[in-house]
Amino acid sequence: MSQWGTLIPLILMFVVFYFFLIRPQQKRQKERTSMLNSLKKGDKVITIGGIHGKIVELTEDRVTLKVSENTRLVFERSAVNSVVSEDEPSSEENK
């Protein structure tokens, strides 16, 4: 009976870790993968470095962003942090 007394706190601790740490992280990773797979030309994005741009070319592993009239930058697809929705004003519209 004392064996169960020592195992129950360990099991409860694992359950707490799973629901508060592991499961939310897996959900965020799945959402990020889905977002990266759904990128398309014309999307306005923000990179992990904070660069805002519009996708002008897209391959399986690279993204080319137009950041100004004459400037295009090439990034790994995984460097895209988020897609800017059309509801949010971009830096170009504020000028």
From TrEMBL:
Keywords: Cell membrane, Membrane, Protein transport, Translocation, Transmembrane, Transmembrane helix, Transport. This is Preprotein translocase subunit YajC. It holds the Pfam family YajC. It is a single-pass membrane protein. GO terms for biological process: protein transport. It is found in: Cell membrane. The chain crosses the membrane at residues 6-22. It comes from the Bacteria. One of its GO terms (cellular component) is plasma membrane. Its main location: membrane. Belongs to the YajC family. The gene is yajC. It comes from Thermoactinomyces mirandus.
